[in-house]
Amino acid sequence: MKREVDLKEISDGKLYGINDMVKADCGDCKGCFACCQGMGESVVLDPLDCFRITQNLSCTLEELLGTELELNVVDGIVLPNLRMKGDGEKCGFLNQEGRCKIHSFRPGICRLFPLGRVYEDEDFRYFLQVHECKMENRTKVKVRKWIDTPDTKRYEAFVRDWHFFLKGLERKIEEKGDQAFANQVSLYVLKQFYLTPYDGSQDFYDQFGKRLEAASLL
After folding, report:
1. H helices within 36-151, ranges in order?
2. pLDDT digits (tens, 9 = 90+) for 144-179
3. Residues 63, 10: Cα–Cα separation, whole Å
């Protein structure tokens, strides 16, 4: 989700790489789940997020839509996001104690928080959102350890490719200025990258790469 903000206002003024130390460690949150409620439609899921969730819960994306997940327009394209539920607007994957039921396969945005990403020159760096996390006295942790994702080199390549693919589609939608075309793009993206199941016995990144290559003709 694109944010038009000045990094100087929301960060510590530094940009980080995967092997840098950053003051993000919340000490296992210690009962706090402030970042798991009231997030609106902001926790947007990429194809890897949905693959992990559906594989680990042994279900389809369709089964989760309308319950824990929902669809919304993000920069002109319909994408899935975590659904906030109830009076407290809490994530549907929280248990009664406010702990994440899918923590080991939680979405990338959840893994990243309170870090964010800034994209430029066909790449990205990480930054620390200094006003977002409610926990005080956070300690330093290596970015690689914090995002807790295997094979970070391939993961970062996936994040980069997915981001710039969507940005390319966004530009095409803006150039066309045609809602019918925007709807067509959204349906294609949902079917190609989310609703058509990935083979859980095969490498996700290889499967995603083939789908991305096919989508380059869109």
Report:
1. 47-57, 61-64, 108-112, 143-147
2. 999 999 999 999 999 999 999 999 999 999 999 999
3. 37
